[in-house]
Amino acid sequence: MLLSITQTQPPATDLGYLLHKHPDRAQVFELPFGQARVFYPEANRDRCTATLLLEIDPVSLSRKKSKYDGRPLAPYVNDRPYAASSFLSVAIAKVFSTAMSGRCKPKPELVEARLPLQVEIPVLPCRGGEGLLRQLFEPLGYRVGARAGELDAQFPEWGASPYLAVELRHDEVRLADLLSHLYVLIPVLDDDKHYWVGDDEIEKLLRHGEGWLQEHPAKESITRRYLKRQGRLTRLALAQLRDDEEETSDRLDAATQTEATLERPLSLNQQRIASVVDVLKQRGAKRVADLGCGEGKLLKALLAEPSFEAIAGVDVSPRVLEKARDRLHLFRLPERQRDRLQLWHGSLMYADERLRDYEAVTVVEVIEHMERDRLSTFEQVLFEVQRPQLAIVTTPNREYNVRFESLPVGKLRHRDHRFEWTRAEFESWAKGVGERCGYHVEFYSVGGVDEEVGAPTQMGVFRRV
Predict the structure, then answer these.
(1) By three-state DSSP, how is residue 318 classified?
(2) Any idea what the Cα angle at residue 328 is, between residues 382 and 253, rounded to 5°?
(3) Given pLDDT bands bounded at 50, 70 and 90, which one contains residue 207?
(4) Fewer CB near the last or first residue (10 Å), C or N of the chain?
(5) Per residue in 240-267, pLDDT tens?
(6) Distance between the two ends of the chain, CA-based, in angstroms?
(7) Contacts of 282 (CB under 8 A, 6+ apart)
(8) CB count in 10 Å sphere of residue 310
(9) 231-263 and 200-208 helices cross at what angle (nearest 10)?
(10) Running DSSP on this structure, what letter comes out for residue 304?
(11) Spatial distance between the Cα atoms of 173 and 201, rounded to a whole number of angstroms
(12) Rounded mean pLDDT of 269-295?
């Protein structure tokens, strides 16, 4: 059972510091079910590969007969010594525990570094096929390669093997995050575990899924399969994920109300919506997706325009999507109107196949809510992977904040804003994205333009070249 992790950003041997495993030494670790070894097939400035070799002890497995009740030969004839499974997840947590916890004493700056990393697993059970593999890893920003063979060349009617040779590539990911993704998703793909699953597994899932599971489009499926389809445990885990989400949503609701109160005298929200709709109509857009749609204010305006044939709203919060359904009176709309609109749970951080047919995308007052270190992931997903013909991005102009008398000096408009850009900063970012990804960008002002500080909202219109 093999797992290889490769780093290609010089000095690539920094991977050894992060993993706390020296490239010049092979190390051995005893586990309850066998032995793990870590070694480096290659280690130089430009490329460094660390390999985890896990050798399962078949005799030890054969003693755990309770797991195989009703299958007398299963303890002796099975795929566990050869195929990646929950055994590999346990080995990852044991052997790379310091790396998973995000600690690197010799070079602490590496912990938050987003690196180009490649993972290879030669034999990975995918009980759900390559489609499930992509459904789990592509939303996390990975490029997925998979190769399957026949189950048995002498019996082609048996079909394809459920085992895949898998390669995962990510251009910028923290090593701790990559290890957490593998720890959770390998057993999900195998859909089996070698040990009893109890309440403590919920804590493991939530701890290793922190920062990504809550926003993952397949979080319910991941939770159910990780917990071996035990209904009570699945319900408890999903309830905790929802509680975390609702707590965040409540804080955002209060902060959003404060921002709305601040901007109300300018009717700024209505002006933003009108400006976005006008640009979409001028550019002849027919199929429009609003990313970070919130409670559906822009969606309502889009529905009022017959020229938009298909409209989609995407948000990370199911609770907010419920509010959007209520605001839009979705279930009372005429069937023809209802068929034009889709509401989907999803995240701007993850590529989404459902958006492939939408030529125009809007991102209205959303990017300022992102951590700066996640902005590059958003850029990659939207402008390199999804690549819409037209993208409209709006964001506050920080320079205008001095015109809000009730806003303290130096404060941002919304408590959840991670940043607010000046006009020069926004244009620099947008032009950089355009140059890298093949988009021409035009800039517009939203709201009255002040001669000194500009307009309260700035808009970038990206047109694919």
Answers:
(1) helix
(2) 70
(3) confident
(4) C
(5) 776 555 544 555 455 455 555 554 555 6
(6) 46
(7) none
(8) 16
(9) 40
(10) T
(11) 25
(12) 93
